Structure formats: C-alpha cells, structure tokens
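RECORD TYPE: protein structure
NAME: Anti-sigma factor antagonist
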Amino acid sequence: MNQARRTGFSSVITRHDGATVVNLAGELDIATAADLRQALTDAVSGDEPPRVVIHLEGVDFCDSTGLSVLISVLNGAEAAGGRVLLSGVRARMTRLFTMTGLTKRFEIRDTADDAVQELLGG
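PREDICTED:
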C-alpha cells in the first residue's frame, strides 16, 4: 500500500492474470498528485499491453490536478495499446466526469470485478 504523507490518500495495487486493479482512497489533488501518478504508473507498467482498472469508490475528492493525472495515465496506456477502465465511481465523481466531458473519454463500470472481466475478454 502506498500512503501519501500528511494527506488522505492511499493506493492498493492488485495484479490479476493479465489485468491490474488499483484501489484508490482519499483525495486526488495537487498534494497527492505525485503519489497518485507513481501508483498508476506502476500499475500501467505491469502488463503488456496495459490493462488497468482504477477503482474510485474510496475517493472523497478530486480536483483538476487529479483529473489530469487520470487522463495522462489513460493516454499512456492507450498509446501502448492498452486500456484503462474506471469502477466504483460514486455520484460526486460521476458529476465531475459528466461536467468535464470525461464520460466520453473514460470507460466506467459498476464494479472492479465487472471491469476486470471485460478487460480479460469475459
């Protein structure tokens, strides 16, 4: 588990056969951006091509810096021929993705299990 100092952020990376799930919790903002970027970069670099689920159920807050990191990781994974799916997106985050037009950019599934199954072709 990665936990940012003096912030409310943590990440847990779980590797499945051919897919990686990153469970995020806390705040995705300027104070946690470096730790968020590192956790997601570690996840994307685990498989070729990268197939990553970012589980957001535990996220309490996300600002433009947090969104920027998510977009950057998505772009990197797609450039490598991979996919990034989001899961566990709560109402506040759904509104944020809708207001910013990112629902057209990110694939969102209800659960991490649903997203993993899709990534693995199930």
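COMMENT: The first helix runs from residue 33 to 44.
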